[in-house]
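Hey,
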Amino acid sequence: MLSRGRRGSASTTTDPSARRHFTPDQLAAFNGVADNKSPIYVSLKSEVYDVSASRDVYGPTGEHSALAGRDITRALATSRLQNERELANLQLSDLTAEQLQTLDNWVAKFQSDEHKYVNVGRLIETDMSLNREELLAFNGTDNLRKTVLVALDGVIYDVTANGLEHYGSDGVYAQFAGRDASRAFACMSLDMDFLDHPELDELSHEERQRMNDWVTRFQGKYAAVGRLRER
């Protein structure tokens, strides 16, 4: 049994503003090694959970201490919990249908009433380099981690943790998910033509200033995870 948290020991965070971004290195610091009260976090499908209630499992002397402070997605999907290669690999595209079902079962367990761990944030990749075609997959639907990325003025932002109310499937800017939204923001338009043709060459001074204002907002709220490249 991988998780033995007490029933009702925690509750899922519902306030998006309370969640934060974690790089893999930042997540690694939450391994519970410092003392017996330090929090223990793990990432499952890029959602970061506080599993401190199961310190007997994930703590330094626990059966699965190697999982503490790590992304455990592949390890759970493949049932290879002590395999360093699986723990270090964040790619999910090669998982089989059976492994994906196993993964979904684990997500349900983490979110169940018995093991309702607090969702404290989102694991993000860094130094991404995508062209506009590659960016399309990060629309919250067409990638296994349900990541939502938005590009603005050449920078790619991960808006999954605290922007789904705007860029999720029901958000007012839902069509911006997985897209370069620079021209659309600059011109304050939801017209798909501005997403299909996001070039900025003909922006007016006012439109350029408006886009810069949006850049400032994004920098204050979302994690910059990479750069948009032409090809």
